[in-house]
Amino acid sequence: MPSGKGQFSPFRLRDWQKQFIRDIYAPMTPEGARRVRRAIFSVGRKNGKTAVIAALVLVHLVGPEAIPNGEIYSAATDREQAGQVFKFARQMVEADPDLHRTTETPNGLIDVIPSTKTLLCKGNGSFYRALSAEAGTKHGLNPSVWIYDELAQATDRELYDVLRTSQGARQEPLGIIISTQSPDPEHPLSKLIDDGLVADDNRILVHLYAVPDDVDDIFDEGVWRLANPALGDFRELDDLRALADSAARQPMEEASFRNLYLNQRVDQTSPLIPRSEWFACRVEGAAGGPAGLLRAKERIYLALDLSAVDDLTALAGVSATPGEERLGAWHWKPQEWLQDHARRDRAMYDVWARPDLGWLEAPPGRRIDYGYVAQRIAGICTEYEVLGMAYDRWRIRDLLAKFTEIGFEAYVDEKGSEPVPGALRLVPWGQGYRDMAPAVDALADSVAHRRLKHNGNPILGFCFQNAVVSSDPAGNRKLDKTKTRFRIDGAQATCMAIGLKSREVVAAPTGPSFWEVLNPNGQY
What we know:
The protein is α/β, with parallel strands linked by helices.
């Protein structure tokens, strides 16, 4: 090892590294060729990826996997990262006089050529070269083996595609990707990992070390090893603790901590609510079910995010009591799309719709029946005293028509309109900064002061996990559906409901009034 823990001692693979190596090289075809053609090793940062890449380079350059006239490439997104891999491999060579050929050691096997980041073995005609995506065209390569370091950092797949498609003339081509996960589910690395995990293809190997997305407490040290197999060995626990403490103090760092060090596929754009904050608002031991923490017949506000006909529709409810925001949330999705959309959205719609759980209602068919939604809203309005329902204007007229069909009275509260006694008051709620910015601020304040309370509704948690915000130059924030591939409907509806409440309910006083401070004894 040229640097780090164990410097100047022999490079010894750990058991988890050995397993990856065995799973690449041990399986053979009936013809005696190496079976694996593509291998992915994904792990949190600082778990020795560079050392493994350098060792694999030498295995194929002068080791047991070397072939005559082999071409071995390590690829990286930028020159600096490419240089790090070459530097490590070079140091391993220079530390061993049997490997390094110089004027003092003319029998060494490898020439080091720093100017082109190349290691050359003249004995078998093979060479290794470090490439970066910045260095222009790579067409004309004929790699026997390529290793892509941190593919997650690549802004496009050009270099990956060049390497992948240039091995056609090789008998046993091998491509290896060693990288932390990308936060983007549409990134080439994410697609490759997803394909490798589900494909019935024994030529593809994936070793994924990651903390599951549904872990309640990401700051529990017991789960960190799932993404950091070297933790407590050459991955320092104190360093990871410091990073976790910083993320806990500064919620804006949480997404980065989860992606880079827990190897979760978490977007580092600004989240609506950090995951840890959402879990901190959960009431332990609360009963399950969509009604959440709402109490029968109490005064509540509702908000509806009405979907396209085949997607998720969400209705959120929030208690009207000043000083606390207890949540309930109902979700509907067409039954025939549960399986397909579970795969598309990486969501457990089919599980949530089970009768024994009841989190998701799945009316039969391939289209959401607005008549069904209208009936359910009418029913919910009999269970609570609904002070108003915020709604997005999109497709609301279809729902109003269904209200009329079932004889349910509702009216739109607009300028000049008159209240209708006993009818549901509908409050138009724009999705731009004017209406959503105060709603997002009200939600953030409720979370920060722990007024927000929920029962762990998994669909609502899924939507909040996906929700990100965009800001205008004045710092106003709104939810941005264009920045996430997955559903945020429940989070959108919750924001609207809390926004409507904050607009209409005067907050309960949290301390003595200004006059009480000046006149504590009431003598004036």
